[in-house]
UniProtKB/TrEMBL annotation:
CDD domains assigned to the protein according to its UniProt record, in alphabetical order: LuxR_C_like
Domain of life: Bacteria
Protein's recorded name: LuxR C-terminal-related transcriptional regulator
InterPro entries: Sig_transdc_resp-reg_C-effctor, TrmB-like, Tscrpt_reg_LuxR_C, WH-like_DNA-bd_sf
SMART domains: HTH_LUXR
Transmembrane region(s): none
Xref: Gene3D superfamilies: Winged helix-like DNA-binding domain superfamily/Winged helix DNA-binding domain
Every HTH luxR-type domain range: 258-323
PANTHER family on file: HTH-TYPE TRANSCRIPTIONAL REGULATOR TRMBL2 (PTHR34293)
Organism per entry: Streptomyces olindensis
């Protein structure tokens, strides 16, 4: 009964339901009411406003209104006292934490900003890059994936590069080998002169820009409309280490690519052969080397022709037989079967 009443009469003695008000008022006026009259309002028993008549259990007698009022006031006083204690505890805790904040030095100055910041939108990315460029005094390291750099991309960052050159900042850039064939990049490097040193690899990591080894920028989504600005020393140091190791493996842009040592197979085709041997699909190979899928398939066709392979399965076997299943490297001259002479690539 009590549980049922709690569902239908969810209130306290300070706000009786209409039915409970009628029955309790009647009990106060008459001195008691039959128990059956209180069955529709079990809240009166639950709130101790009615209680059994000790002389006759079929009747209920009311608790005096004065006692009910005293009980309500006592409850209100207890609630106010508890609230005051909670407020006092909160104020004391606030003062304690504030004292700790005054004792602890911040990990980074306000000028350095947060350790990791998400830049949403090209405008915010450009603004953050411009700010880092203005603060840079020593060195910029960049990794530029993809193939031939579009002139629009080079022009977009030209004002920053010229500003850095004007302050004597040294720049080192990593590209894929394919970027060597872009006239825009060659023009850019000629314009920058000794301020920029460029090297290339078969494939590089995703875009990375490091200023003074203190702040780094990396993409945060595939279309590069979001970026992360990183200032955490451990993260930045890790990215610098990655760059330096790639730099040692890379070939200066002013130096020619090494000969494969295998007649009729170019350096790029050797790279494609190694990735084919690893089981990669054409689209993945093209993306990693910075070329189009169509160009990649044209190179694969020439590989098949040069190695005398009639199918992809046979091509895989021939790649392994002539030692093209490893990373590109200078090898001793090898002769491979050729179906017919071809024009130079």
């Amino acid at each position: 009964m009590a549980g049922h009443g709690a569902e239908e009469h969810p209130h306290g003695a300070d706000r009786l339901c209409e039915a409970g008000d009628r029955v309790y008022s009647r009990a106060v006026r008459r001195g008691r009411v039959p128990r059956r009259d209180a069955e529709p309002v079990p809240c009166l028993l639950e709130l101790a406003l009615l209680h059994p008549d000790p002389d006759d259990m079929d009747w209920l007698v009311p608790t005096s209104p004065q006692e009910v009022m005293t009980r309500l006031l006592r409850g209100m006083y207890d609630e106010v006292s508890a609230s005051q204690r909670r407020v006092g505890s909160a104020v004391a805790a606030f003062e304690w934490y504030a004292g700790l904040g005054r004792q602890v030095q911040p990990a980074a100055s306000a000028a350095e900003g947060p350790a990791i910041r998400v830049l949403d939108g090209l405008a915010r990315i450009q603004a953050a890059m411009d700010e880092a460029t203005q603060a840079c005094t020593t060195e910029v390291l960049t990794v530029q994936p993809g193939g031939i750099r579009r002139e629009a991309e080079l022009s977009e960052g030209l004002h920053r590069a010229l500003a850095l050159r004007g302050r004597g900042v040294r720049m080192r850039d990593l590209y894929t080998h394919v970027a060597r064939h872009g006239q825009g990049l060659l023009t850019y490097l000629e314009l920058m002169g000794d301020a920029v040193e460029a090297r290339t690899l078969d494939e590089v990591i995703d875009r990375l820009i490091l200023f003074d080894r203190t702040v780094a920028f990396i993409p945060a989504n595939t279309d590069r409309t979001m970026a992360l600005e990183l200032r955490h020393p451990a993260i930045v140091e890790y990215l610098v280490t990655v760059f330096e190791r790639l730099w040692r493996l890379a070939i200066p842009l002013t130096a020619p690519l090494p000969d494969t040592g295998i007649e009729g197979i170019s350096h790029r085709e050797q790279s494609i052969a190694a990735l084919l041997a690893e089981g990669h699909q054409d689209a993945v190979i093209a993306e990693r080397l910075g070329i189009s899928v169509r160009t990649c398939r044209a190179h694969i066709a020439r590989l098949s022709e040069t190695l005398g392979a009639a199918s992809r399965t046979q091509l895989g076997v021939r790649i392994a037989q002539v030692g093209l299943d490893g990373p590109p490297q200078v090898a001793a001259p090898l002769s491979v079967p050729r179906r017919e002479s071809r024009t130079a690539r």
